[in-house]
Amino acid sequence: MDDLGIIEDGAVAILNGQIIGVGQTDFVNDHFFSKERIDVTGKVVTPGFVDAHTHFVFAGSRETELEMKIKGVEYLDILKRGGGILRTVRDTRAASKQQLQEICNARALSFLAYGITTIEAKSGYGLTLGDEVKSLEVIRELNKSTPLTFVPTFLGAHAIPSEYSGRVSEYVDAICDVWIPEIAKKKLATFCDVFCEKGVFEIDNSRRILEAGKSNGLLPRIHADEFYSLGGAELAGEVGAISADHLLNISSRGLESLKHAGTIATLLPAAPLTLMIDRYPDARNLISNGIPVALGSDFSPSCWIENYQLVLSLACYKLRMTPAEALTAATINAAHSLRMAHRIGSIEKGKNADLLILEISDYRFLGYRLGGNLVNTVLKNGKPVAREGRPLH
Description:
Helices cover 39% and strands 20% of the residues. With 393 residues, it is of the alpha/beta class. It folds into 2 domains: 10-46 and 349-391, Urease, subunit C, domain 1 (Roll), CATH 2.30.40; 49-337, Metal-dependent hydrolases (TIM Barrel, Alpha-Beta Barrel). The protein has an 8-stranded parallel β-sheet with strand order 4-5-6-7-8-9-10-11. Strand 5, helix 6 (129-145) and strand 6 form a beta-alpha-beta unit. Helix 5 (97-113) crosses helix 6, helix 7 (168-185) packs parallel to helix 8 (203-215) and helix 9 (232-239) packs parallel to helix 10 (252-261). The model has no long low-confidence stretch (mean pLDDT 96).
């Protein structure tokens, strides 16, 4: 993860949105000719950022919960009081598909300006079949209405909706027997995810949901061991999850399970920051054990972060990842976690020309410089789509 394969005085040749050549400038000039050139002298070019974990589709906000967190109320207690996810569920259910589309279109352009070119986007704030389908249809439309690439994840198992209070098994039955087959039939999702957590969807129910997803062609992902060492990472390895996310309280058995299964650990350093938890996942232990680490923003009403460059900084300062490791986690490893590394995530011949031109002379400013926007230009499929913090769309 620390080897970026840096090419000093490099150049990239692009044709029809794909990279057809990459190497030192003299080599590329000798082998390719183009009337259109972009001068990046003194700048850094990287792959476009890949955000491997977002809860992108929602209406409303939860700014009042910040004060509750400051006063020491824990997230799961906010949820029990009808806040948290359940508040956003009410707002998202009340929004029309058109309203959600407009909200998410504007949101996507903000992400684009900070250098994100591909986003994993979860449903999970509808919690009825109709509202989950509505959210996933919004994600599908975002691939047409914005320059970004969205990868859809079904997260009906995000919380227990109030109408199923005390009837968790019935809700899981509905998800497994009705919702997942319908969503798979409509081809609305690539992945199936579950919030595997104490008091929400515990191990047996999480296993059943992920296996139902696999039976219907949806690849498994899992929110694992965020608040408790419940065994989510062990389950991730058991079901062959592509990604296990959060992992603040992973056990040694869980670590071995991920390693054996080849599951990617997707870490979300902004999540404990916004939850005011003074604990972060042990990235160094994961990396030293050969487990690939990806990064995600955890963008949601609880973690409203649009500047993905700040996520890289938090990875450096809070997870003690090097800038090179953070950049790898935010590009090629994140692409692998979405099963898209054959198309994006690195600057290689044959891949999509999703590139960032950064207004810096050294990649290590990513991580070092906090809170700003270092992106000069965003290229999506070889075409400029944002420049100096402004979308061109």
